[in-house]
Amino acid sequence: MKQRGKTSSAAMSVVSELKDHRSPPPIELTEDQAQIWSDIVKTKPAEWFSKDSHELLSTYCCHVTSLRGLNKMLNEYLPAWMADDDGLRRFKELTTLRDKESNAMLRLARSMRLTQQARYDTTKAGVAHKATSKKKLWEG
After folding, report:
1. Are 97 and 80 in contact (CB under 8 A)?
2. Mean pLDDT value across residues 27-31
3. Which residues lie closer than 8 Å to 116 by C-beta, 6 or more apart?
4. Cα 5 to the chain's mean position, in Å?
5. Residue 56: helix, strand or coil by DSSP?
6. In this predicted structure, what is the pLDDT of residue 73?
7. Looking at 30-133, which runs of residues are DSSP E strands?
8. Is 89 helix (H, G, I), strand (E, B) or coil?
9. What percentage of residues in the chain have a pLDDT greater than 90?
């Protein structure tokens, strides 16, 4: 039964605890992969990732960490190492692997609608682009 009259400040200060129904990262993910999972899940509404998409998201997180490792190796690669055939072959293999990881990530991100392309309505995107393209670089 509802209480009559003004609501007391004590009654208004009571906040019910809201449950977040977002899925935690699977236990088989590494610490880095679990952090990627959590970061991605936080950017979407709670119902965005249903159980049937968890495997896709897990795989995506694995590809992200693999790509980061490949980028780290390529960043440490010295140009002098490409002087011989073995160094050039290794560089080519690393860049090929990086391209494959990037493409796999892109396919998964698109299928889960994580890319910027998925956020824009095509009818509104053109209008927004025209509005922003009229500003000069120094106008902020």
Report:
1. no
2. 96
3. none
4. 49
5. helix
6. 94
7. none
8. helix
9. 53
